[in-house]
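Slack export, channel: ligand-projects

TW: morning all. Re-posting the request from yesterday since it got buried. We need the structure predicted with the small molecule present, not the apo form. The ligand is magnesium ion; the SMILES is in the block with the sequence. No rush, but it would help planning for next week.
GE: picking it up
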Amino acid sequence: MPTDTLPHPEKSPERNSGELIRLDQVTKRFGDNTVLDHLDFSVDAGKHVTLIGPSGSGKTTILRLLMTLLKPDEGTITVDGQKLFPASEKERREVRKQIGMVFQQFNLFPNMSVLRNITEAPVTVLGMSKDEAVERAKGLLDMVGLADKCDARPAQLSGGQQQRVAIARALAMRPKVLLLDEVTSALDPELVAGVLDLLRDIARSTDITMLCVTHEMNFARDISDQVLMFDSGRVIEAGPPEKIFSEPEHDRTREFLSAVL
Ligand SMILES: Nc1ncnc2c1ncn2[C@@H]1O[C@H](COP(=O)(O)OP(=O)(O)OP(=O)(O)O)[C@@H](O)[C@H]1O
Ligand SMILES: [Mg+2]
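GE: finished. pasting the full token output, ligand included:
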């Protein structure tokens, strides 16, 4: 797979330093359900962090807070030095431009061609010229193995193909951060490996900071610098994958891993 079309140059760890994402004492409630409870964690630029934990533990809520789709009830969230709340809508928009998100259900624009799905935001949000956006989109489609699907509609693609388009669409914005929420959970088993291989390649060959929710533990082990185990809105254990997967300290982590591994 060619990597010269990737939006970032060769991985260069020395350029990546410092904190890109920080949550300080973040609390999020829905009614009387406290979903995140004074949560603290940070992610350094260029790192790949995986969030694991049981259903309902607040993983998606964290990604939605980072996308500014939700507002925390307490605490602060900082992305690349910019606080998300309080902030002006313009400031939040600038932050959102740096964050790409890929969802479980692809969420492609159904009435647009594959190519247009990828060029739309770079043109309308970043102000990229149409020609440049098309050229980049074609490069990205080539990278995800779908160069021949430019004119197809999402409904004409398999789930795995749609998810690869969604990944290309996120990368087209040249994000600093890629948020991935169970991106293979809705796929037929035989399509999972292709999408995970693509993400491994992106992790290996770009500087993009990745925050990933997944139940694919082998994938998490391969790509993660750090794994955070969530339970009831808190990080109960964090560490490198070899530690979390091989020598977890918490009973709750052991219990969770024995259920998913
Ligand atoms: N918009 C909402 N309104 C009310 N409750 C919500 C809303 N979004 C999430 N919740 C609740 O917040 C809790 C955490 O949800 P979240 O989606 O973050 O969990 P998760 O860890 O991603 O779970 P899963 O592994 O099943 O995706 C759940 O109890 C959920 O019901
Ligand atoms: Mg979720």
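GE: first-pass observations. Residues 132 and 153 are 21 Å apart (CA to CA). Residues 59-60, 181 surround magnesium ion (ligand 2) (CB under 6 Å).
TW: perfect, thank you
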